[in-house]
Design goal:
By secondary structure, this protein is an all-beta fold. The protein has one domain: Immunoglobulin-like. The chain has no helices and 11 strands. The strands form 3 sheets. Strands 4, 5, 6, 8, 9 and 11 form a 6-stranded antiparallel β-sheet that branches. Strands 7-1-10 form a 3-stranded mixed β-sheet, with no helix packed on it. A hairpin with a 2-residue loop joins strand 2 and strand 3. It is found in: Secreted.
Length: about 110
């Protein structure tokens, strides 16, 4: 997964991106990979997991861009299309979400203490 996250006119270094997946079954919400953006606001993540049921992968972005003094971090949640789920440890396709401006207020945005 490739992602570049600017925060307004400044690049967003150190933004926490925590891809996880939701599984219908006994082992929900396993962490697939996580990382933070570099000095240019970029992140490149790859992960794998063995499961016996279908997965619905999502990735979460936690940030405090344009947030004033509110408790916790803003949390954005994005679903990864099924066409990017492959068998094996090496992905056959890379999901590129592109550029996200974190000043945007997303309709289903949440807050979370981390």
């Amino acid at each position: 997964m490739n992602l570049w996250i600017p925060s307004g006119s400044e690049k967003s270094q150190g933004i926490c991106v925590k891809p996880s997946f939701i599984v219908l079954g006994p082992d929900p919400d396993d962490l697939l990979a996580q990382g933070v953006t570099d000095a240019n606001g970029n992140i490149n993540l790859q992960g794998s997991e063995t499961e016996t049921t279908n997965i619905d992968p999502v990735f979460n972005v936690y940030h405090n861009c344009d947030d004033k003094l509110k408790l916790g971090l803003r949390k954005l949640k994005f679903r990864i299309p099924d066409s990017y789920i492959t068998w094996g440890k090496t992905p056959k396709r890379m999901f590129n979400i592109g550029v996200l401006n974190l000043e945007t207020i997303f309709p289903e945005e949440e807050r979370q203490l981390i």
